[in-house]
Amino acid sequence: MSITFEAQVQQIGDRLIVRLPGDASAALPSRGQVAVDAELNGHLFRTVLEPDGRKGHWIAVDAALQDALSLSEGVAVAGELTPTKAWPEPEVPGDLGSALDDAADLDDTWDSLTPMARWEWVRWVKATKNPETRERRVEVSISKLRDGKRRPCCFDLSSCTDPEVAKSGKLIEPS
Fold first, then answer.
1. 98 alpha carbon, distance to own chain's centre
2. How far is the C-alpha of 85 from the C-alpha of 122, rounded, in Å?
3. What is the pTM of this model?
4. Which ranges form a coiled coil (predicted)?
5. Comparing 157 with 138, which gets the higher pLDDT?
6. Do residues 171 and 161 make contact, with C-beta atoms less than 8 angstroms apart?
7. Across 12-32, average pLDDT
8. Cα 149–157–162 angle (5° rounding)?
9. First to last CA, the chain
10. Which sequence spans correspond to the domains of the chain?
11. Class assignment of domain 3-83?
């Protein structure tokens, strides 16, 4: 199943994103994160779409994608998405990575998690601007993993949790 769309690059704060049109988001299998094989303006890549907290999704425009396509705010993109069960590995933030490195007893546990589950742990840890809360989430992650938990609990998977572009679980509207 392929989903095609047209959209414009939007800027929220210092970040560039591509917000999917409503019909494209509605065609996806989940209101939460969705792994996809994507094509934007002819450039192929695998990514995880993020929920916007309003039953929609958005694509993070990282530096590599920005450079490859010369993207900036207002640039139009033509896209095609194909949902996949093959999730890319998440980029584990340094603080969580260091805690996992220090917890050698969890090597097999972390490795046994699906990439989707690792995305959930990373997303939960990163979903706060407060340094003390983040530190506590790293500690709790290690504790929960030691207790055999495979995923963080009590986490709304359809909320927008990137604190740089979200407020109260919803993607901030570009200004």
1. 21
2. 18
3. 0.91
4. none
5. 138
6. no
7. 96
8. 105
9. 34
10. 3-83
11. mainly beta
